[in-house]
Specification:
The protein contains six helices and no strands. By secondary structure, it is an all-alpha fold.
């Protein structure tokens, strides 16, 4: 997750540019999707081998920059909504443990509603 020190730097960067007025929750959510799409574009139509080669080459920098953009917008969104990212991820992990018990789903890519959940 993003450290408090880095979060402070990000917020200061935004404040110095007076961008808070543009960073409403809807705009930040839209920006997250756009950046995620830009990340995905790096992988579009590539085989696993081509992806592996790309990630060893100079294109890896572009992938890391898109991931950074996603993290930045997510940090701003959590800050503005007064959400603790670590806390909400931890809560979601607990829910996912219940939805996807390891002994039932190990090795399966099925969604939680596609397998029999009774113990």
């Amino acid at each position: 997750m993003i450290s408090d020190e880095l979060k402070k730097k990000l917020l200061e960067f935004r404040r110095e540019r007076d961008w808070e007025k543009f960073h409403r929750p809807k705009e930040l959510a839209v920006s997250l999707v756009i950046e995620a799409s830009e990340l995905l574009e790096n992988f579009q139509w590539k085989t696993d081998g081509e992806v592996a080669a790309m990630l060893k080459g100079k294109s890896a920098e572009g992938v890391s920059e898109e991931i950074a953009d996603i993290a930045i917008y997510l940090t701003y969104l959590c800050h503005d909504l007064n959400l603790d990212l670590e806390e909400i991820v931890s809560r979601k992990l607990d829910k996912n443990r219940e939805k996807y018990p390891a002994h039932r789903v190990r090795g399966s890519a099925k969604k939680y509603n596609e397998y029999n959940t009774p113990a």
